[in-house]
Request: fold
Amino acid sequence: MHGRVGRMVEIDDLLQVGYIGLVDASRRYVPRPGVNFAAYAKIRIRGAIVDHLRSNASLCRATLSMQQKMREASNRLEQELSRSPTAPELAEVLGMTTAEVQDWQAQFASSQTRSLDEVYSDHSILFQDQSASAEDKIQQDELKGLLRLALGDLPEREALVLQLYYVEELNIYEIADILGVTTGRVSQIKKAAVERLRDGISRRQGDDI
Reply:
């Protein structure tokens, strides 16, 4: 991954992100027959690194260059001072004003997160009333109960595919890699599981009538 992006990102940053992905994989992984942890961890680590690179994709080359210079200066000062340097101290080393250093630091911080204006509009569901009526809540609770029972009837392999697809949010290629099967086979298992769930829920609803 670092070979692809070159100087656009520090190798140490990718390693740290990869470690986080590994820890996340260890927490999410549930030992099951046919599920290889190494393959599962590889997907989580790669995904963490890709997400990190995407979050930095909006930075222009000038900003990336300045970010690298400031990081190098900060690291040198930390070693000399045995503490994090202040903006005036960084400014002196970089030959900039304190205001310029602070402005750059603000730009680095803003590039890591998208503003609410980007994510939500005035018509966003964030501002909509999402509270369910009492009747809707009862129906949802009943459906969840039926779904839970139907899930318990699924063969282990079908339940695993649904878990990886809908809960872990892996795609069929990643699931195929974990299970050691073709993507076509994953699609078949997923389709069979969904149909079995529908039949199970419909049957139970009919029994309740």
About this structure: Confidence is low (pLDDT under 50) at residues 112-129. The chain has eleven helices and no strands. The chain has three domains: 1-57, 59-114, 134-208.
